[in-house]
Design a protein that fits this description.
Radius of gyration: 13 Å
Order of helices and strands: EHHEEHEE
Distance between the termini: 34 Å
Mean pLDDT: 87
Oligomer: single chain
Largest sheet: 5 strands, antiparallel
Shape: globular
Helix content: 10-25%
Length: about 100
C-alpha cells in the first residue's frame, strides 16, 4: 500500500478540559450536515466515546499557524489520516 501524500506530520496533544469550537467553524459544520441545529456533532464513523476524546485533543495547525481543536482538523480538507498520535496534513492553503 502506498503512503498517503502529505506535507506535514502534526502531533496530536491533549488538553486538560474540552475546548470550544469557534462560531465560524460551528456554522461550517452545520452547513455541511456534520452538526445539528442544537450543536450536537454527527460525524459518520466516529463513536460517541471517540468523539468525547477528540473534544479534549488539539493540534498546532501548520496551515492556520495556531492551536485548533482536533475536530476542526478532522473535518479540514487537508486532513489525510491519523496514525499513532500524529495527523498527516496535505498543507494546502485554505479558502475563506
Amino acid at each position: 500500500m502506498d503512503e498517503l501524500e502529505h506535507k506535514y506530520e502534526v502531533e496530536v496533544k491533549l488538553s486538560e478540559k474540552q475546548q470550544r469550537l469557534p462560531e465560524d467553524v460551528k456554522d461550517e459544520l452545520k452547513a455541511s450536515g456534520m452538526m445539528d441545529e442544537k450543536g450536537k456533532l454527527k460525524l459518520k464513523g466516529v463513536s460517541p466515546k471517540m468523539l468525547k476524546k477528540m473534544k479534549t485533543e488539539f493540534v498546532d495547525c501548520p496551515v492556520l499557524k495556531s492551536n485548533i481543536q482536533f475536530i476542526q482538523c478532522f473535518v479540514c480538507p487537508n486532513f489525510q489520516s491519523r496514525v499513532m498520535g500524529k495527523v498527516l496534513c496535505k498543507g494546502d492553503l485554505l479558502k475563506k
